[in-house]
């Protein structure tokens, strides 16, 4: 089944869904966004019709994708007057499907941080879908299969829990890297020297149980090494507080295993 799609939003997710579906049998025909300049860019890049009014959305299209901020989903969805057979889907990891008050609604959430300028392999992205009806199920499965080979059905509560895990894995890790880069710059160290160990850590964590491969002074409860680190970190209070918290967490996890 070839789907005709309307796209609302012009941010990172909208750009990536446009790229992912560009070579598929499905066709995004039109775009609307409050950010007119960004919507123009998308429309020009992918040859979409650029709408300046939500009321002009095609009533013949099969799917309306809401690639908007979580706090705008309910407002935008309520401003649409869809035909009963049309499916409206949002792309949020935390918003409930009930934010869309329509008989045929869905969710299309990628477990990936999507940035416009960064290319990703869509085939391998875990893509979580959910739906409110058999008709929405058919459409969600069709469009998801065109994007990824790693599609899963996940209801609201489980998706929200997975989103929390994704935030910790991605956003918190990136923030820690930012703090470490600032520390290296302040101490005249080359941050790039840490690339190999960071890459190895992520690769090992995919192949083995992270609990089984933990190393370092906290795992050994090496009080002398920890004390030296904390002495150095007195000039870096943001990193110091995280170091203390993480060190104690590791000590607590392995205190009966050492």
Description of the molecule:
The protein has an eight-stranded mixed β-sheet with strand order 3-2-1-4-5-6-7-8. The N and C termini lie far apart (58 Å). The longest helix is centred in the middle third of the chain and has 31 residues, at 156-186. The protein has helices at residues 12-22, 36-46, 73-78, 134-147, 156-186, 195-207, 217-220, 223-232, 237-254; strands at 4-8, 27-32, 49-51, 63-66, 87-90, 105-110, 127-131, 151-153. The protein is built from nine helices and eight strands. The protein folds into two domains: 4-154, Rossmann fold (3-Layer(aba) Sandwich), CATH 3.40.50; 159-254, ProC-like, C-terminal domain (N-(1-d-carboxylethyl)-l-norvaline Dehydrogenase, domain 2, Orthogonal Bundle). Strand 7, helix 4 and strand 8 (151-153) form a beta-alpha-beta unit. It is α/β, with parallel strands linked by helices and 258 residues long.
Gist of the model:
By secondary structure, this protein is α/β, with parallel strands linked by helices. Helices cover 46% and strands 14% of the residues.
What features would you highlight for this structure?
258 residues; alpha/beta; Rossmann fold; 9 helices; 8 strands; N-(1-d-carboxylethyl)-l-norvaline Dehydrogenase, domain 2
Strand and helix map with partners:
Blueprint: E1 4-8, H1 12-22, E2 27-32, H2 36-46, E3 49-51, E4 63-66, H3 73-78, E5 87-90, E6 105-110, E7 127-131, H4 134-147, E8 151-153, H5 156-186, H6 195-207, H7 217-220, H8 223-232, H9 237-254
Parallel strand pairs: 1-2, 1-4, 2-3, 4-5, 5-6, 7-8
Antiparallel strand pairs: 6-7
